[in-house]
């Protein structure tokens, strides 16, 4: 009995493979760029609206804001382009400076946490707080966004500067839940220790970097002109 | 022996129950367990995956004679990644909040074995119409499965459904249900229910066959 002849599989030419891979790559590139172009404006609007809503949420008394940045010589100026971690000055309906909104970030338990918080020039305290980005554990770390006793810290978290106005008078620190004794301490969350500690560190770092400059130069920045209807 | 002809309706329906990607094939477990902590997240992830399944299935089916066997995996992944990128942009354009909630899992749709599996096992061997029906059926089945898991986890873990309170103030939420382990508990519970129903269906079918044999004899 003769053995069956082995099945000869047709060899694919290199040209067919090049054609397929390059063709599909070109089609995919075209599609991605088209969708990007079609959605870019809407995405930018959504991001701007999200940030603007967040600013209004943490500093509800502000009627207008100016984004500020640091000049090469370390002085405060109005920003000409949006920054990655924007800082805003907030004004009331009379154009008086009432507060600043600072974006800050730092490492949490799972990943970077990005927060937005408001500083009151009148009371020298942090008065509002919102988490912008977080990948903390649902049900544990993300309690910093909803836990009422933690959010109560931001009814007036002391952020006074020292006599020279060069640094915080007292570093902002997180303490164990129920052990807060000083106005600059954050009452932490049991079960979300690392995340609440991280929030304290982020606020301390952001405030140490920005509040001396904002207190020194903030009042020199002109409020935005009211738009004519 | 002639192969049984599968109707287009069957191509669609099989993904909903008989070959459900989550409860029967146990595919795509990463998003099924990770993003199903609320019903809205589960629905959004299911719809995003359905769109990618549909478009990838259609594209692979249309290009099946153009893609050589040796270059098929790289081509399929390239096509799938393109549609996932498009979905990513679309979700950001619809809602930044939703995009934040779904996080990294939108990008991870690329490596959902369900999508590559349907492209390789079905779309590359069938016409575009059947590929679309198969993708739609699998996508809807996947969405339903995620939604059912999400409903249980949100109600028990947060005491809400679509953010609306479901219990009186005194209800103590089961935090474990919104944690990753809660995904496994909810999944196990649904697998128990689905397998129980399938066993009952199998038993009823067996009894009907025996009865018809008795009548015939």
Description:
- Chain A has one domain.
- Chain A is an alpha+beta fold.
- Chain A contains 3 helices and 9 strands; from the N terminus they run H-E-E-E-E-E-E-H-E-E-E-H.
- In chain A, the strands form 2 sheets. In chain A, strands 2-1-3-4-5-6-7 form a 7-stranded antiparallel beta sheet.
- Chain A has helices at 14-58, 148-151, 193-217, and strands spanning 64-70, 76-78, 87-91, 97-107, 112-120, 125-133, 157-158, 173-175, 185-187.
- Helix content of chain A is 32%, strand content 23%.
- By secondary structure, chain B is mainly α.
- Chain B has one domain (10-165, 172-216).
- In chain B, strand 1 (160-161) and strand 2 form a beta hairpin.
- In chain B, helix 1 packs parallel to helix 7, helix 3 (39-62) packs antiparallel against helix 7 and helix 7 packs across helix 8 (180-216).
- The model of chain B has no long low-confidence stretch (mean pLDDT 89).
- The chains are: A alpha+beta (229), B mainly alpha (217).
- At the A-B interface, helix 1 of A face helix 4 and helix 5 of B.
Strand-residue fraction of chain B?
under 5%
| Overall average residue pLDDT of chain B | 89
Structural class of chain A: alpha+beta
Shape of chain A: elongated
Low-confidence stretches of chain B: none
What strand line-up does the widest sheet of chain A have?
2-1-3-4-5-6-7
Major β-sheet of chain A, in short?
7 strands, antiparallel
Could you estimate the helical fraction of the residues of chain B in percent?
55-70%
Radius of gyration of chain A, whole Å: 26 Å
Using a beta-carbon cutoff below 8 angstroms, give the protein chain pair with the largest interface and the number of residues from each chain. Answer: A-B, 28 and 31 residues
Mean pLDDT of chain A: 90
Mind describing the biggest β-sheet of chain B?
A: 2 strands, antiparallel
Q: What is the β-strand count of chain A?
A: 9
């Amino acid at each position: 009995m003769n053995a069956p002849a082995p099945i000869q599989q047709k060899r694919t030419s290199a040209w067919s493979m090049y054609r397929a891979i390059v063709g599909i790559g070109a089609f995919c590139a075209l599609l991605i760029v088209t969708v990007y172009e079609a959605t870019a404006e809407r995405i930018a609007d959504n991001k701007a609206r999200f940030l603007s809503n967040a600013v209004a949420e943490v500093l509800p008394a502000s009627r207008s804001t100016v984004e500020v940045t640091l000049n090469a010589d370390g002085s405060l100026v109005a920003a000409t382009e949006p920054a990655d971690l924007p800082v805003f000055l907030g004004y009331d309906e009379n154009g008086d400076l009432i507060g600043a909104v600072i974006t800050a970030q730092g490492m949490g338990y799972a990943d970077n946490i990005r927060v937005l918080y408001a500083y009151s020039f009148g009371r020298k305290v942090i008065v509002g707080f919102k988490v912008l980005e977080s990948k903390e554990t649902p049900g544990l770390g993300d309690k910093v966004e909803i836990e009422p006793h933690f959010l109560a810290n931001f009814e007036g978290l002391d952020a006074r500067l020292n006599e020279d106005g060069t640094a915080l008078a007292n570093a902002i620190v997180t303490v164990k839940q129920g052990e807060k004794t000083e106005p600059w301490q954050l009452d932490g969350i049991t079960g979300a220790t690392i995340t609440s500690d991280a929030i304290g560190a982020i606020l301390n770092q952001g405030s140490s970097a920005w509040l001396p400059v904002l207190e020194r130069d903030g009042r020199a920045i002109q409020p935005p002109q009211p738009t004519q209807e | 022996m002639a192969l049984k002809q599968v109707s287009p309706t069957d191509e669609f329906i099989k993904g909903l129950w008989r070959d459900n990607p989550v409860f029967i094939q146990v595919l795509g477990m990463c998003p099924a367990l990770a993003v199903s902590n609320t019903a809205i997240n589960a629905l959004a992830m299911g719809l995003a995956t359905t769109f990618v399944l549909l478009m990838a299935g259609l594209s692979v089916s249309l290009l099946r004679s153009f893609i050589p066997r040796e270059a098929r995996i790289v081509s399929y992944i390239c096509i799938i990644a393109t549609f996932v990128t498009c979905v990513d942009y679309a979700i950001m354009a619809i809602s930044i909040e939703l995009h934040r909630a779904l996080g990294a899992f939108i990008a991870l749709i690329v490596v959902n074995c369900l999508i590559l599996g349907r492209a390789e096992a079905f779309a590359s061997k069938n016409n575009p119409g059947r590929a679309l029906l198969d993708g739609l059926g699998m996508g809807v089945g996947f969405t339903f499965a995620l939604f059912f898991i999400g409903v249980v986890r949100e109600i028990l873990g947060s005491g809400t459904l679509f953010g609306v309170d479901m219990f009186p103030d005194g209800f103590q939420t089961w935090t474990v249900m919104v944690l990753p382990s809660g995904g496994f508990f909810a999944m196990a519970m649904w697998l128990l229910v689905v397998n129980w129903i399938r066993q009952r269906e199998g038993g009823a079918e067996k009894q009907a066959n025996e009865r018809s044999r008795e009548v015939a004899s």
